[in-house]
Amino acid sequence: MFRLSNGKDDEVDARSEMLNLIRSRKEGYSLPQPFYVDQEFFDLDLELIWYRDWLFAGHDCELLKAGSYFTLQVGSYPVVVLRDREGQIRAFHNSCRHRGSRVCTSVRGTTAKLVCPYHQWTYNLDGSLAFARQMGEDFDPSQHSLKPVACESVAGYIFICLANEPADFAPFRELMQPYFAPHNLKDAKIAFESTIVEKGNWKLVWENNRECYHCAGSHPELCKTYSESPNVTGVSGGGEDPEMADHWARCEAAGLPAKFQIHDSGQFRAIRAPLLREAESYTMSGKRAVTRPLSDAVQAERIGALMLFNYPTTWNHVLVDHAVTFRVMPIGPNETAVTTKWLVHKDAVEGVDYNLDELTHVWTQTNDQDRRIVEENAFGIRSPAYEPGPYSQVHEGGVIQFVDWYARFVETRLGGSGQSHIRRVA
Fold first, then answer.
1. Of 92, 148, 208, 289, which shows the fewest CB atoms inside 10 Å?
2. Where exactly does CATH 3.90.380.10 map onto the chain?
3. What pTM value is reported for the model?
């Protein structure tokens, strides 16, 4: 791509070019090449979306006691998430207020205080500076606390926001809480976790996720239990489908919210969808992978999968016996980390209540298949011959909705801002 000289001219050129391409794009088609491969467009994605929106970080159950923490990297920002001595979950910029070194260098751990390994500046779990050796009489520790990151917990999920003025979290909480509360994920445990790096842009990861047009030819394990219906992957609501309507009625009679609901912005949505035939779980047999239900409060059978999608970081499947959660994290214009966690009842015992291979097999295979799909897609998009192609209006409605959401958010944020509220689709 043509670029002006480095510096502000270069940045202005990238912003202008992104806006022009968004405004001239053909709806119902994939995006122009720079959105998938260009470093400056990737940097703008970080600025306009990843540094401004609420991002799924992890689960409450990963922070079992005071001093438990985990770390993550969001673009240029290292972040630490922890539980303090009062039981509150907090997040901080993982950068020492002395000379900027990372304070927590492990992926996870437990500590009484946060100690920077460089010069041993020591922080309490509320982020306040507890110790800094020989800094002089004029030094004020209260002015050198760790910088906080906005942090919210809902239904066992932890979200963070890097913006100085975060968007209102309440609309998402309002949508998510009723669906997830019965599953009691706060009291679950992580049975297994994996992270794979897909050599493709984060938007390609999402586009692939938002359709099952490719499933029959790519996901033999998943297709034993997961429906390829556009009513599941799309955003039509699915209420006109008798099977979907019957499933919703059965779940809601058992006290489980089920109907499709989407925020007006299109950024997040939830639905409880049936699995194929008599399946209860994502296993090769369709039978439960875990004999102990995920939640003591949910004893109904054939509740299908509760699915939550929240751009740009997470999609989720909650079943009667376990949950599978996914976190997307961009690394570069052509690299994306996808972290998958399998959650089970906190008292479920491996080898007694579940076999780990059986629990993880379907999504381990599916993730690797999707990785190859995304990487081949990315490889082809880098060709000079690439041009945007049409999405299937029947099977790729979810992809169209994702791309429309992305384009709308980028265009708005390059020139303004706006907020929306929740609506229910029957």
1. 148
2. 174-382
3. 0.94
Query: What is the mean pLDDT of the segment spanning 159-176?
Result: 98
Identity at 389, one-letter amino acid code = G
List, for residues 217-227, the tens digit of each pLDDT value: 999 999 999 98
Residue 262: how many other CB atoms lie within 10 Å:
20
Q: Terminus-to-terminus CA distance in the chain, angstroms?
A: 45
Give the architecture-level CATH label for domain 174-382: Alpha-Beta Complex (3.90)
Which CA distances in Å does 55 have to 27, 151, 172, 185, 328?
Answer: 27, 9, 12, 18, 9
- CA 243, CA 222: separation in Å to the nearest integer? 20
- Is domain 54-161 in CATH 2.102.10.10, yes or no? yes
- CA 171-173-174 angle, 5° bins: 65
d(CA 290, CA 305): 15
- Per-residue model confidence (pLDDT) at position 416: 55
Instruction: Give pLDDT tens digits for 6-37.
Output: 555 667 799 999 999 999 999 999 999 999 99
CA distance 230 to 13: 39
- Number of alpha carbons in the 13 Å side-chain half-sphere of residue 129: 20
